[in-house]
Amino acid sequence: MQVEQAPQNRLKAKVTSAQTAVASYQSVNSKVSAYKSAASALTQLGTWRAISATSSSSSVAVSTSTNLSATTGSLTFDVTSLASKQATTMKVTTFEDADNDGTLDTTPAQLTSAPDTISITTTAGKQYDIDISKDKSAAGIAKAINDSDAGVSAYVMKTSSSEGVLQLTGRKSGASNGFTLTGLDGLGVGGTSPETTEAKSATIEVEGGGTSTYTVTSDTNTFTGLMNGVTLTVSKKENDVTIDVNNDTGAIADKMQAFVDAANASLTEISTQTAYDPSTKTGSPLTGDFSVRDISTKILGSISLGLDWSEEAAGGADVTDKIKSLKNLGIELQQDGQLKFSRSEFLNAYATNPDKVKEAGQKLGTQIEKLTTTMTTNLKSVITGRNNEIDSLTTQISNWDIRLAAKKLALQKQYSNLEVSLGNLKNQSTWLAGQLAGLG
């Protein structure tokens, strides 16, 4: 059977080789796709409009987000109030939990005099009627409020053996999230009328032109929209807080570094997958594949040749003053075939002429994105072809399984018949030997 299985074994070896090649192609494609993504990032306006912000006060936190409308500038203001939630409290008569039901008890007289329904009305005018008929104890009322959708939390805090405080707190801060409580003024739970600390919004007074100021409020201590792409969070009252927002050149340089790193990762992966060791005469899965080596050649060529403004020139644009060499962006090709990015050179160039560097950076991203799109398309096509080849080989191997099983069965039957024939011959030989012995 080993001889019969030889063709199938050769097919299996081809499958293993093809699978190894597919894994290598996929690895190269992954690196080139990452390079494409890094190039695409350079084409985005948001990359070149990154901002950073600083606050003059440790009590005012500032964060930024990248968007097309992000602006730079300075803002000075006073924090005049902080956002708070409404708190409404009332003293109530409570007793020990004599019946062990988990609530503080009230007297029967208080149970009968308390109303069956209380109401919470929001600042926006929406009224929530809350049924407390099942349990008119202070704890029962608190539970009914917590179970409602009124946006209010309630709990009873025991202050002595017979007294406590029923406290209602708004779940959201800000003047627009206040509420009024009705139905408990009649001392239905044996307490005093409610006392309220109103909800407040955070307020800042922003310095305008000259001596003018304007007020900005927020239901929370966080302010958005004062400057596009900037969010402020205040934590205490304070005067003369200044926020400075500037272009985040460091973030832009990070994108350029990521671009160079992705290019080097692609070049390294291609080198690994196509390497050949002459001392051991062993190759890698893609050794000898010109199409993969050509990817490396084109990546290096795109860097050494620099930016191509021919399309713009053909359209009538003046390209004489455009950046052409990538060295002017801090990118340089080294002798070892890797790229090097000089952060300082890039930042100096950007500081000198940000518009020209931005234009060149976007042009670079567009050129490489177009180049790598073709590369990944071709790699995916090769991977698909190899996978189809594997499927075909796998089908052939399965067919050989059927063929070999039939061959094995035929051989087993043949050998079984031979054993029977040999047994008959042995019997005849024994008989003949006996006959010959009798003749003697």
From TrEMBL:
Belongs to the FliD family. One of its GO terms (cellular component) is bacterial-type flagellum hook. This is Flagellar hook-associated protein 2. One of its GO terms (biological process) is cell adhesion. It comes from the Bacteria. It holds the Pfam family FliD_C. Residues 199-425 form the Flagellar hook-associated protein 2 C-terminal domain. Required for morphogenesis and for the elongation of the flagellar filament by facilitating polymerization of the flagellin monomers at the tip of growing filament. Forms a capping structure, which prevents flagellin subunits (transported through the central channel of the flagellum) from leaking out without polymerization at the distal end. Keywords: Bacterial flagellum, Coiled coil, Secreted. Homopentamer. It is found in: Secreted; Bacterial flagellum. Residues 1-86 form the Flagellar hook-associated protein 2 N-terminal domain.
